[in-house]
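Bench log, entry 3. Co-assembly request; chain sequences pasted below exactly as received.
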Amino acid sequence: MCHHNRFLLLNVAKSDIISLVFQVDETLCPFKLSQEQLQLVKARMRAGLEAGLKTKGSSAIKMLPSYVYRTPDGTEHGKYLALDLGGTNFRAMMVNFKRQNARLYHKIYTIPLEIMQGTGEELFDHIAQCVSDFLDYMGMKNAHLPAGFTFSFPCEQTAIDTVSGTLVSWTKGYKATDCEGHDVVSMLREAIKRRNEFDLDIVAVVNDTVGTMMSCAYEDPQCEIGLIAGTGTNVCYMEEEVDAELSKMCINTEWGGLGDDGSLDDIITPYDMEVNQNSINPGRQRFEKLTSGMYLGEIVRQVLLDLTRGGLLFRGHVTETLKTPGIFETKYLSQIERWEKLCVSVRETLGLKGTCDDSIIVKEVCGAVSRRAAQLCGAGMAAVVDKIRENRGLDHLNITVGVDGALYKLHPHFSRVLKDTTEVLAPQCNVTFLPSEEGSGKGAALISAVARQIITSRTGRWTLLDIMQQFRRELAKGLGRDTNPTAALKMLPTFVRSIPDGSEKGDFIALDLGGSNFRILRVKVSHEKKQTVQMESQIYDTPEDIIHGSGTRLFDHVAECLGDFMEKQNIKDKKLPVGFTFSFPCQQTKLDEGFLITWTKRFKAGGVEGMDVVKLLNKAIKKRGDYDADIMAVVNDTVGTMMTCGFDDQRCEVGIIIGTGTNACYMEELRNIDLVEGDEGRMCVNTEWGAFGDDGRLEDIRTEFDREIDRGSINPGKQLFEKMVSGMYMGELVRLILVKMAREGLVFEGRITPELLTKGKFETKHISAIEKSKEGLSKAREILTRLGVEPSTDDFSLVSQVCTVVSFRSANLIAAALAGILMRLKENKGVARLRTTVGIDGSLYKMHPQYARRLHKAVRRLVPDTDVRFLLSESGSGKGAAMVTAVAYRLAEHSRQIAQILSEFRLTTEQLLEVRKLSQWCVCVCVCVFPCVLCHYLTPS
Ligand code: G6P
Ligand code: G6P
Ligand code: BGC
Ligand code: BGC
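Structure output for the full assembly:
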């Protein structure tokens, strides 16, 4: 029942008051919701959210994934354009993020009704025209800025970096034809193309709720909900349980659709029904039609019509004005409810010649309608915050809601009633409502900044997860017998079956060819009390003409350096076992053989591909004739690194190189390696991950700069992953980006020097120097001066940003691939938590000031249930190669000794046949003397 306790101010005769009050209150009664009703709405909203998450789009509340995985973290930077369509106006905005600060410029455009309800082409042409005007206004027509598009309607998205949004259905006042079911980003791009006057790089499309949440989260990290109470209404929030692999994603609930399945019928009044019937989308957005700015005025008008028809208002005089749909705008509601100038307000705004008493009744109607709207939104919000609290298993939740929209901002009581209702209905949550100052455009720009990071460089977490999954698929493909021939990852068996076990000993030579240095080492492993290693090494030159000349010259050079080293070590007369670290992809069927599949990095000596490098080296040594060597093992540098680190940490089962090139190896279960016989135990597999993407898998994330690097390389189309991430290419990537920026006038005042245009002038070591926080600036000055440019202070900061972007991307991509390997190890072992060690080497990893930290962090984020130790290989992969050689040497020695002993027992075939007959005797000898080995010898083939 409703209470009749108002209208005390009415200026009518007392006897009439009672009846008037009674009748008006009776009319407004259905708008007054009890606590129980609000609790019910909260419960229905909650059920709607859950159903939406389960059914993915087919329920009343759509729960659309936004592919926004995190709120801003302050690292966003750069200039972005934001286009903001779907609220009261269209807004174009330029946002410049600089060190946790955002500068904004914007211009507002109205969208005429005939455009809102014309054809899709007209609508997008109109937007393109507004953008053109804005770019003129900003003097940025030629800037080709990245742009974020706030599109405040329900859209289906697939991933933020695919940049598309399929309009599910128009809402609010829009009804342009040929848009529903189409990608609005493509429509905007086509309109821009039709204008043929400027270009935009649209990098993100976002709902206004998401934009608002992001804007507010820029100020308050606790902001994980976005609410719009404006022309339309909607909420988004960070949901934890979207996908088993991801911890959080922002979901655009589209809560305006609550009730579209009839679940709100019990609170819907005849006035609401009327408004729904007259709307452009009858039957849809029922919750929105009870709560948002576009409809509240209309509801009020319907009530006023009814009251007037009943003679309770305006002396029963129904004017044409009152009969006009849309005449009573929500902003009038706000004005009227602001008590001052009430009578004037009603008269002026509505053109209704009523008395002041009429005005009081009108105000009462407005109050009932707006209060209900705020309460309903409060009930909805209570459902959302309670869900988040439960998702997180908390007794109490502190959270901030970023809010925008004319209703929230302009109405005198809406915000208070909303907050009060939320508090009452969700008592375990402390909810702060933070109004967004700059609209959702700033948020769209922030999301663009994040999306941009993915597209151009700093790969965001969501694509990293994709990349990790792709990488895992590729690993499996490379291991399969039938799929290996077409796999990008070659997954080469190495015939190394275990890491050092502490029993290795001896005197070894290690050759280490393929990194930035060619090194020869002598490694002595002794066993007095404990295992100790002594090493001596020398670096030799490998001149450009040798690595690009003939294979014979290259191996002659290696043999010559080895001769020199042995001479210096005084061991030319000894035949020491040699381990050969050869840092290129090699096909092996045993430890001491390696057929080079293809050269990589800087090497291109002729006549080596397809050949066994051990044979080539032996040949070169023999040709000299001044010393002898016994090459017992050829190992990749990753394997050498894993073995070096395995010497110190028995848990080490992965080896990675992040240097001139990049690669990884790990211990795989033999049963999974189709290319090698046997099921028992493990074998180290050289993944050759540098070739990841050579089958086109990385095309989505490769940039124009990556393509240019590839085109200019000695092996186009090959090692595409390596070319995005490794030391040989990163400096060049930075140079190419700077050239482009200079051409666009963004750095160096547009000046391009011949040095800047010279390939290789900017090296990866320069990135490391510039990113050092202390000396970075003076280093940058020195490096840029050498490039012939006169940098300004802004230039320094831009150059350093470019370096950061490129090195961040590298660390993230490597993290994704490494995470793929760790996931595989975890699965192979069938453990809930993986404890493992990764051995690492390479100049980029070692020299870059921030690389290691970023890599570790990204890996730990990607594979949360793992305790990974990253162990830097202090002594290069030569030591590891010596360990492999030690094992090979021990096995070979063992076989040799056995063979020697057995030679005394060696019998003729006739004798053997004779012996075989005496099998009983044989068994006895076998068991007593040399069990299986003898049996083997005694059994003729
Ligand atoms: C923000 C956003 C708009 C959004 C609007 C809602 O300002 O930038 O995209 O649609 O709020 O407000 P309105 O009240 O205009 O519908
Ligand atoms: C280790 C190995 C080299 C390897 C190098 C990679 O030190 O001993 O064989 O190739 O790391 O580093 P770089 O940065 O020189 O390519
Ligand atoms: C749209 C939402 C939007 C909201 C607020 C609704 O009509 O469906 O996508 O967020 O209005 O602008
Ligand atoms: C090679 C790998 C090597 C890596 C690191 C790549 O170019 O193909 O075999 O491990 O560089 O040196």
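The first helix runs from residue 14 to 28. Confidence is low (pLDDT under 50) at residues 3-9, 454-462, 919-941.
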